[in-house]
Amino acid sequence: MNARDRAVARLDELVSIETPTGDAEGLAAAQAVVRSWLDPVIGEPGVVEVVDGVRHLLWRGGDAPKVLLLGHLDTVFPKGTTADRPFRLDEDRATGPGVFDMKAGVVIIADALERIARPGEVAVLLTSDEETGSLTSRALIEREARRTGNVLVLEPSLDGALKIARRGGSIYRIAFTGRAAHAGLEPWKGRSALAELAHHVLALPDLADDEAGTTVSPTVAQAGTVTNVIPEHAEVRVDVRAWTLGELERVDERMQGLGAHTEGVTVDVTGGINRPPMEERVSAELLECARRAAARLQHPAIEAVSAGGASDGNFTAAVGARTLDGLGPRGAGAHADHEWVSVDSMMERIELLAGMLDELTR
Fold it and tell me: If we measure between CA atoms, which residue out of 104, 69, 242, 250 comes closest to residue 165?
């Protein structure tokens, strides 16, 4: 079996194991498959680290690893998705749930490690809760980033471009509590949590700053129980993104200070800054390493972009580790039914990652 066919076979095997965040059985099955690939190459068994009941997979790379390869095995797709949308290959295009975000990146890690001289000096961390904010894996990610000082994130590329900066993000839940009453007989005795929610949904986007690239987006809301009752409870979830920590902190101060517009309704804000921004300066040295490797391989020149979405690379950058993101392949449709990945670009990325690792572990 040639290298391309093996990469496709591995991708098929991994995509066919459904791994929605929180599905311990599916994630354990995927971890077992990846361990069968990496254990013989790295020369040590992967260790399962359990945090708050969630299992994450780590190869420590010895006592002094030179670089950390970072990725995740969980996807956003519910169990049963592969029955309707199984892995398929149509010439260069592979499709299936999680194929782009980011099971192709995991295959790239495995195949690149087999090509380098010192795989035992490379740490690998594959987490299981990235898609829900890395709540249990964050401390583990930060610990391993500090230990290595260099982090390569195998999240998808942006049409082939590496990601040298990412916006940070905050997540909030705002709960409103009023007083229920019969909507037909005595609505004036009620205090509508839904009306209070409406005030906030309309006002919250005003906390954004278009010039600074800061967005504040109410995204999920719920209220009420039945049609003829004034809603006693309501809540809204809010997504905040910003290029600087100062902007996240500005919005956080305003969020934590939110008050009620409606007499008799209380407002309770939970949540806060989830991922600090990944600033461009932390990527500079590793970007040059990537460009040198591409030149040696006679690949096209490496392009670099700033990306609006966050990843676990935000955490590694925040603790001072040099971080380069977007080393996964070309493709599109992350989190969507039309998700796809280019197998040709997977093969290019395997070569590029191997070239970078050989330089970093020399």
Answer: 242
102 alpha-carbon distance from chain centroid: 9
Model pTM score: 0.87
Q: Give the C-alpha separation, 54 to 64, whole Å.
A: 26
Structural domain span for residue 42: 3-166+277-360
pLDDT tens column, 128-181: 999 998 999 999 999 999 999 999 999 999 999 999 999 999 999 999 999 999
Shared-domain flag, residues 12 and 122: yes
Instruction: Write the DSSP symbol of residue 74.
Output: -
**Judgement on whether residues 269 and 241 belong to the same structural domain of the protein:** yes
Q: Of the candidates 313, 358, 343, which has an alpha carbon nearest to the alpha carbon of residue 88?
A: 343
pLDDT in tens, 100-109: 999 999 999 9
Residue 229, beta-bridge partner list: 182
Torsion of CA 149, 334, 238, 79, to 10 degrees: -100
Q: Are residues 322 and 212 in the same domain?
A: no
Q: Is 229 helix (H, G, I), strand (E, B) or coil?
A: strand
290 and 151 together in one domain: yes
